[in-house]
Amino acid sequence: MTRTTVPLRQLPLASLILALVAGSTAVASDAPATPAFDTLPLLDQSMPAAATFNVRYYTNCDDDGLGSLRQAVNASASGDSVRASPTLSCSTITLQSPLIFGQAYLDIQGLGADRTTITAAAGVDGGLINHIGSGRLNLQFLTLTGGHKYNSSQQAKGGCVYGASDVAINNARITHCTAKGLGSQMAVGGGVFSGGLTSLRLSEVSGNVAMTTSGTYTSGGGMYASGGVNMDRSVVAANAATSATNSWGGGFTTPGAATIVNSAIVNNSALTSGAAHIHPPSTSPNTITNTTVSGNSALRVGGLTCIGPTTIASSTITANRSAFGDSGGRIIGGGLDFGSGAHSIVSTIVTGNFSGSGDVTSSINLSGSSGATISGNHDHISGSTLALPSGTITTPLQMLPLALNNAVRPTHALRPTDPDVDAGSAPNGQSYDQRGAPFLRTVGNAPDIGAFELDADMIFRDSFDASIPTRTP
Fold first, then answer.
1. How many CB atoms lie within 10 A of CB 121?
2. Residues whose CB is less than 8 angstroms from the CB of residue 256 and which lie 6 or more positions away in sequence, other chains included
3. Can you say whether the dihedral through the CA atoms of 406, 408, 412, 418 is positive or negative?
4. What percent of the chain lies above the pLDDT cut of 70?
């Protein structure tokens, strides 16, 4: 890649000295390419088009002062990239107060999710990263953990990350953060709150909690995204939205549209919509492809609630649990509940979920509001309150346990005797199953139904893998 060196911006002398100490360098706008983990297309993570931007390096793990992350952020202009020095020898930055900044666009990078961690000192409230600018915040190659946002005068938003606009998370981990509403205040986004679109790419959001002390509204245990969610090869796991009476979207909540590909939403919990509550305007479509939704739980709809036209392809929705079998006089499914309107399901498994006191043979797996319809083909859906496409397999089936199956995002492997083997299709010319290369989408006579493609020549674990995040009591 060719780089063009250009002069530093014209800065006041004091600012120029700070920038030089922090290692500021003007570079071409084609930032270093991120590692290619597999061959899927990437979500757009680009910064605003510009001839140049400044890279400012932080060189130590101090909370403040020359060479610190805080100093580099404060010295940056909109569109700059704040990065860990390649020679940074420490791994954990412990903030003594939240990092608050207002540049329109900013990019913050570490050396890797297992090499750079940002956390909070004991007793620090207000979260970790608070971006109050009007543009997008990029967070890349780092772990954010241990952030707390406890509010008694307004909503608690974003235990680790607050973004007034879009937030893009790339090759990063957001974990064990808490947003808590005190008194009568609500809490949204235990790990991440964004006022716009939240994008996850090759990232994990796990073990976060949105909670209140008075039973008021909580939503988005892992994330709350006001403008929609894009997930690409990511995991949302073991998050919770907790309230005595009113909590939604254990994994995430968005009133915008969701696009989810090659991802896993597992082991999350809430009172309603344990995996996710997706409720965009009726004209905004949701798309879920090559994705596993499993092990999520709620009183109502253990898995996904999808309002607005939704297309689901080559996915597996199983082992989710709803404690109640009905809500407001309407029967609800343990795995998937649609809002009114037209939806499409293709080559997807929705079985093995539980609702009410039923077992796998009697549970309702899929439900919908009045006016909801389903089109599609090559599906395995048992226990549905909605009419299913002709040819749908309806035999109840309990899947093999969730496991990594030689990958980094969990799936449910198929048995050679399962009816889903060689019974599916590959919508949109998919080349690989949820796990990505080298796991082909088609092995044998035809693709399998669901997110996992069985290959008899490969050996996988068929039991739960301890590295998949779970919630502890």
1. 11
2. 197, 225, 226, 227, 228, 229, 280, 284
3. negative
4. 87
DSSP-assigned letter for residue 326 = E
Q: Of 231, 243, 240, 169, which Cα lies nearest the Cα of 40? A: 231
- Look at phi and psi of residue 142 and say left if phi exceeds 0, alpha if psi is from -120 to 50, else beta: beta
Whether 417 and 397 have beta carbons less than 8 Å apart is answered as no
Cis amide bond preceding 41, omega within 30:
no
Structure tokens at 171: 């090759």
Sign, Cα dihedral of 182, 185, 186, 192 = negative
Among the ranges 17-26, 50-59, 234-243, which has the highest mean pLDDT value? 234-243
Burial class (CB in 10 A: 0-12, 13-18, 19+), 69: buried
Separation between Cα atoms, residue 61 and residue 90, nearest integer Å: 6
**Contact by Cβ (8 Å): 362, 383:** yes
Q: Token pair for residue 56?
A: 């400012």
Nearest of 127, 117, 244 to residue 179 by alpha carbon? 127
| Paired sense of beta strands 252-254 and 380-381, if any | unpaired
50: alpha, beta or left? (left if phi > 0; alpha if psi -120 to 50): beta
Candidates 214, 414, 231, 213; CA nearest to 222 is: 231
Alpha helices for 274-413 (secondary structure H): none
Report the predicted TM-score, pTM, of the whole model to 2 decimal places. Answer: 0.89
Query: At 17, is the pLDDT very low, low, confident or very high (cuts 50, 70, 90)?
Result: very low
Q: Are residues 265 and 290 in contact, defined by beta-carbon separation less than 8 angstroms?
A: no
Q: What are phi and psi of 70, to 5 degrees?
A: -60, -45
CA distance 242 to 231: 23
Task: Compute the distance between CA of residue 120 and CA of residue 116 in angstroms, rounded to an integer.
Answer: 14
Q: Please state, for a pLDDT cut of 90, what percent of the chain lies above it.
A: 78
Write phi, then psi, for 16 (nearest 5 degrees): -65, -40
Q: How far is CA 208 from CA 163, 165, 276, 355, 463, in A?
A: 17, 21, 14, 25, 25
- pLDDT for 261-279, tens place per residue? 999 999 999 999 999 999 9
Question: Residue 273: helix, strand or coil by DSSP?
Answer: coil
What is the C-alpha separation between 226 and 165, in angstroms, rounded? 9
The C-alpha atoms of residue 264 and residue 247 are separated, in whole angstroms, by 21
